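haha ok so turns out i had the wrong file open the whole time. this is the CORRECT one, sorry everyone. sequence first:
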Amino acid sequence: MPTLTEIAALINAPVRSDGQREITGVASLADAGPSDISILSADSYLPQFLATRAGAAIVVKRVKLPATTKIPVLIVDDADQALSRVLELFAPPVPCPAAGVDPLARVAKTATVGSGIAIAPFVVVGERTRIGSQCKIYPGVFIGDDVVIGDDCQLFPNVVVRERVTLGNRVIIHANSAIGSDGFGYRWDGTKHAKVPQIGTIVIEDDVELGSCVCVDRAKMGVTRIGRGTKIDNLVQIAHNCIVGQHCIITGQAGLAGSVTLGNGVILGGQSAVRDHTAMGDGSMAAACSGVSDDVPPKTVVSGIPALPHRQSLREQAALRRLPDLVAQLRKLREEIDQMKQDRAK
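then structure:
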């Protein structure tokens, strides 16, 4: 187990006492025991900090510690970043499939796999598919024909990667996600909704991570693209012909309609939705539960339904909350005016 001195060196923080104390885990202030290290990231958590049983704490520099602080503290500029490094010390290894191709897997004779591969039971790999080296393919994964998968990828149980999809290097796809379903395209032919063929493909670039139950639809024509370094949370829908830029963050239950374009570094809050053929510029953000229906300029924060610049949205929400009082005032004024009219008529 690492000592407090070793953890301090890892996060570049001074340690003033009890440096040889062994730390066996990481826990919240409420749950930590004498051998755990915890985190204090804001003044609002000071009551929990004063009551904690933790053996040490990572504390952000801006927090004003009381003079009565007894446990060792590691002062840092960014507590979340420091905590992330410490968590890596204690993270248990993720169980991996055994090296090689399991006899219960079905790999097409025309498929090729790289060195150091691990393909678990009940995996299906289609014709002419190419899988790079050091990939880990977990049980129940389906990989269709003519798929290209780069090096060091991880596909967790029951992931589906349909035909003609391309994954870059170090792509992680969590359980039950579906990549390459048909885009949602129909036309009314006079009697029924006739399906429009979806003949395009999907490219997922290097270092992308998709959570569980993410759906990325293939393009009607051309490509649906997820840019390098983008991270997508669980239960997200990416529709056909969307272009998602590099290093975007898309959080749970967000949805992109067809042909949406997100620039680099865009952030979408939970349950936000972006209308078809809408573009969001580099570095823009949509707050949780926003409905984005018009283009968003770069580095702009929007919120609400329909999404507006955040400050404007807050003003409108504040005004809306005053509406019942304003209606009552208006009713009273109208009654006074009617009374004045009646008095004059007399």
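The longest strand covers residues 36-40.
again sry for the mixup
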